[in-house]
Amino acid sequence: MTTARTRTFRLAAAFVAASAATLLLAPAATAQTASTYPTKPVRWVVGYPAGGGTDYLARTAGAQLSQQLAQPVTVDNRPGAGAIIASENVARSPGDGYTVFSADNGVLVYNPALYKKLPYDAEKDFALLGMMGRSPLIITAAPGAGFSDAKALIAALKASPGKYSIATPGTGSPHHLAYELFQREAGVSLLHIPYKGGAPALQDLMGNQVPLMMLDLPSGISAVKAGKVIPLLAMSAERVPQLPQLPTAKELGYAVEAYTWQGLVAPAATPKDIQARLGADLLKSMNDTGVKQKLYDAGWEARPTDATEMARFVDTERKKWHALIKARDIKLD
Fold first, then answer.
1. Domains of the chain in sequence order
2. Which residue from 74, 135, 195, 206 has the fewest beta carbons nearer than 10 Å?
3. What is the overall mean pLDDT for the chain?
């Protein structure tokens, strides 16, 4: 019996030792997996339809990132609900380094202040990888609206409060909130007409169905170049490189600065070393001369940063826009 007990104890001890060895080896296996990353294609989620400005930026940057990673980067368009559908999908995806997401100011900044409940947590569900680009928002007039320049626009708005309407791609969009900021700072009053997307709003602007629109340049650069719409005033800190003749709201004395911008994120559980790899390769991709030129031609301004700088930027944006949303009592549920 003593011999049997001894054997039992020895077997138990061996089992415990083997289990401990397995646990000790687990981190090494994980590290080895991370060191050989990536071994398969990376999915790049976009919360808007194919063919739009966000999609173009993702495909342009993704093509270069694919070269850096030596693996295909495939764009997965999941439009709907102001990118909330895509945000939820990414938040619930495995944190294995094979899912990344174009996260804009709506996803990371506006939605948490506009909605009481969201199917994702903007601060906890995503790992920030780096900023990619931005585009200033521009007040643009229909060809038959009768506005020749920014000063004429301001004079008309002040003379007739509430007379003129302005289109945006939707309530709660960067365009809408830029309009709210401009309206407050300039002391004017316009009628907001939210559309279901930028394309139908731009069509109505070109067709003189609406006099004004808050436009992002990637969505309207072709119409601007063709003279089908008239850009009047940029909401940027400096003049728009693609439209150097266009004055800014700041030049007219209004403290207005607003952009539509894009950063890249991954599910929060993504290992830190893979986050670092993705962030470094994204930075190289966005600093590529060819990528910068393509984005410039499409109305974007490449603004690559690392994850730390992106975190600072997003925090500043949250403080600024959450205060405005609260002050203007803007709610979407």
1. 42-134+260-327 (3.40.190.150), 136-252 (3.40.190.10)
2. 74
3. 91
